[in-house]
Amino acid sequence: MKPPVFAYHAPRSVEETLELLAQLGAEAKVLAGGQSLVPMLNMRLVAPAVLVDIRHLDDLDTVEVADGRVRVGARVRHRRLERDDAAHAAQPVLREALELVAHPVIRNRGTSVGSIVHADPAAELPAVVALLDARLELTSRDGVRHVTGADAFLGPLESALRPGELATAVEFPVRSPYGGAAVEELARRHGDYALAGVAAQVDLDEDRRVTAAKAAFFGVGGEPAAIDVGQALAGQPADALRVDDAVGLARDGLDPDDDIHATASYRRHLAGVLLGRALVRAAAAATTPTAASTPDPAREVHA
Ligand SMILES: Cc1cc2nc3c(=O)[nH]c(=O)nc-3n(C[C@H](O)[C@H](O)[C@H](O)COP(=O)(O)OP(=O)(O)OC[C@H]3O[C@@H](n4cnc5c(N)ncnc54)[C@H](O)[C@@H]3O)c2cc1C
Q: Which helix (H) or strand (E) holds 71?
């Protein structure tokens, strides 16, 4: 199918973009990588009167690691973030999640901020945002506001973005010296959206025992939210986790849907299996120092 008729603007600055978005309101859609928007236009699932293409906004094409955050501008493509060594050292779960997003050809065009504001419940990055309590920066002519973690998602394909706003960046916290995270998913073919997936985070004390743990699922509900499973793992040694209680706790909190790909009960079962694997790998990652984490002398002794 062909898209409905629309007007097209490609502003040259953030200010010009914000002015256009303020004037057009709900009539406009931002065009970033187009990897979700263009198929939706072609299928006539959306019909904005105007597309505002942000391709010229070079100020937003930056990845910065500073002040305990990995800041990713709205023009940054998935593939660029995936390959950024400083971002990888600072928060390794980003590369792990991005490698599971579609195929390289789609990651070469699609943007990470676009994926987050698109808020597909089967997408990897929104779950990582919920898990890490990452901060989305939303800018309008009236100023900047921030939404954090699961507050960035209101429902399937609905983020906290309001008409007139441009998502200018997302900021992920740098991995803590005692924290690790991992992503597990099952897709029918590599690169497909996952039938179910989970991002998990485990924090340890200096004796390598669990102090906190949480998980954020994708493909198993309407929008990602972090589930606290720390009480089911607290005090356990990182190298000998017993995950059954945590898996049971998380499964009780899930409410997946049936669809043509899987039944709800299969998804719930699968989500638990994946969580068990992700927790074990997250705990292992938490015992591995990264370049960006500040090694603690006590931890070096235990390593
Ligand atoms: C075949 C295929 C397979 C895919 N598989 C996966 C997958 O497995 N996992 C996954 O996570 N994704 C997958 N995707 C989606 C891909 O990751 C998209 O690139 C991403 O979801 C959207 O990013 P984009 O930059 O292309 O956004 P666009 O398509 O340009 O925009 C998407 C939506 O977000 C809005 N938007 C984008 N950027 C901004 C901004 N800065 N400010 C305000 N609004 C904005 C747009 O207006 C639009 O509503 C797949 C896509 C395809 C085509």
A: strand 69-73
Q: What is the pLDDT of residues 284-297, one digit of tens each?
A: 999 986 654 443 33
Q: What is the pTM of this model?
A: 0.94
Strands 50-53 and 7-9: parallel
Strand partners, 176: none
Which of 82, 99, 115, 147 for mutating ligand 1's site (highest number of atoms within 8 Å of CB)? 115
Listing DSSP states for 166-226 in one string gives EEEEEEEEPPPTTEEEEEEEE-SSTTSPPSEEEEEEEEE-TTSBEEEEEEEEESSSSS--E
Taking the centre of ligand 1 as the mean of its atom positions, its distance from the CA of residue 174, in whole angstroms, is 24
Q: How far is the CA of 35 from the centre of ligand 1 (A)?
A: 5
Select the more confidently predicted residue: 298 or 112: 112
Assess contact for 218 and 194: CB atoms under 8 A: yes
Q: What is residue 282's predicted lDDT score, i.e. its pLDDT?
A: 98
State which ligand 1 atom lies nearest to the alpha carbon of 138. 42
Distance 281 CA to ligand 1 centre (A): 28
pLDDT confidence of residue 302: 27
Ligand 1 within 6 A of 39 CB?
A: yes
Percent of residues, the chain, with pLDDT higher than 70: 95
Q: Kindly state if the Cβ of 292 falls inside 6 Å of ligand 1.
A: no
Task: Write down the mean pLDDT value for the chain.
Answer: 93
pLDDT tops 60 at residue 159? yes
Q: Name 182's bridge partners.
A: 200
Predicted pLDDT of residue 261: 86
User: What residue type is assigned to position 299 of the chain?
Assistant: R
Closest ligand 1 atom to Cα of 39: 53
Contacts of 68 (CB under 8 A, 6+ apart): 173, 174
Cβ(199) – ligand 1 distance below 6 Å: no
